[in-house]
Amino acid sequence: MTHRPIDEALRPVRPHPVDALWTQPPEPGQVDPAVLSALLHRHGWQRRGGAVGRYGRWTPPGPGGGGTSLLVPESRAFPDSDDLLGEALVALSRSGSPSARDVLVALAVPSDEIRWLREVPAGPVGAAPWTVEEQLRAAARQTLLAGALATRARAGYYGARHRRSAAASLDNVLVGAEPGGRRLTAFLPVSTGRPLAIRLHEALYAAREAIDYQRATGGMDAFDAAVEAGVSRELLEALVALVRGTEGARIAVEWAPSEGVPEGCAAPAEPVEFSPGDLPVLREAGARYLREEPSVPVRITGAVVRMRRSGPRGAGTVRLRVIAGAEIPHVRMTLDEEAYRIAGHAHLVGLPVRVHGRLESRGGFRRLTDASGVVPVQVDEAERDRLMKSLQENLDFFEEACSGD
Prior knowledge:
Elements: H1 17-20, H2 33-42, E1 46-47, E2 55-59, E3 70-73, H3 81-94, H4 98-108, E4 111-118, H5 130-150, H6 163-168, E5 174-177, E6 183-189, H7 190-217, H8 221-226, H9 233-243, E7 249-254, E8 272-274, H10 279-292, E9 296-308, E10 316-324, E11 330-335, H11 337-349, E12 353-360, E13 367-376, H12 381-393, H13 395-403
Parallel strand pairs: 11-13
Antiparallel strand pairs: 1-2, 2-3, 4-6, 4-7, 5-6, 7-8, 9-10, 9-12, 10-11, 12-13
């Protein structure tokens, strides 16, 4: 198994659900008129009159919006409120405006919204190279992944640690992009994604403050304190990817109006801006996090999946699939002749082994140094059968170890 660097896309963010998973507007009885009005305002719709205290007339953003309007009741105090809501929702579902789609998604799945905006030069008639949108999506995913990592632990550099569970937590994130590759919005369902939104909100502000401090004083001390707020090498690399090749970029966090503002968070939260002038500081701080993140003492239990040594005797290299003891999928280590023999016997009979050592930050916390105390571990029959099946599927690896090639 190979491990991808943070700047390489792992897999695409879940596609926007309008076409694939959702085709009907929400029922009027499920929609709070105040929430609908707040979402229209958030997504650029303009209120242009209406009966005060009864309903508002809203028109979409952009040129040509004056020909379309929605009548949205201010409350359910009047008998025709459900009728007005129903007509407004149908009109939104039939609109070709990306903002209308985003409003409907936010109604269907109450979500905190993360917005990215990149200032990139426009091409002919406002068009942009296809790579611009690809870069925005990749940077947005890196940003979300860095925020998800920070909800699991605080570290200046994660490497392979917590990556699998952090990536899995993004499965329920919805995404909508505007044409041109300059804007993208991620919808984080409040039920599962609010901790990520809060942590990312705090981390972005902490990163901005640390950059400003370094540019004003030349000191990097603020980045040490920023780790506790969720700043990491992974987040800084995401910001580099977002800003590189632009005239500037910003990220905004908008809280779900149906749920309110989380305790201790700003309302409204101002967008956090980054510029090309920040790139040297971001790169320097990221390298510092990588350099200074300490190794971690661990006791790992894992199944032997690969063994190799240069001759029939002596030390060899062993790779474990981690079962417990560290938030990484695999780890490599060098074992002396006796420990290598114990690992080989455990592999043959379908037992995992337990080993003590230190996870080294170099290489992304994928290597165990000072390995000692290698012993087989008893497991239940179901796990043992699964390990034996894995052995049969990987006999070529073990034959390499025994052949001395």
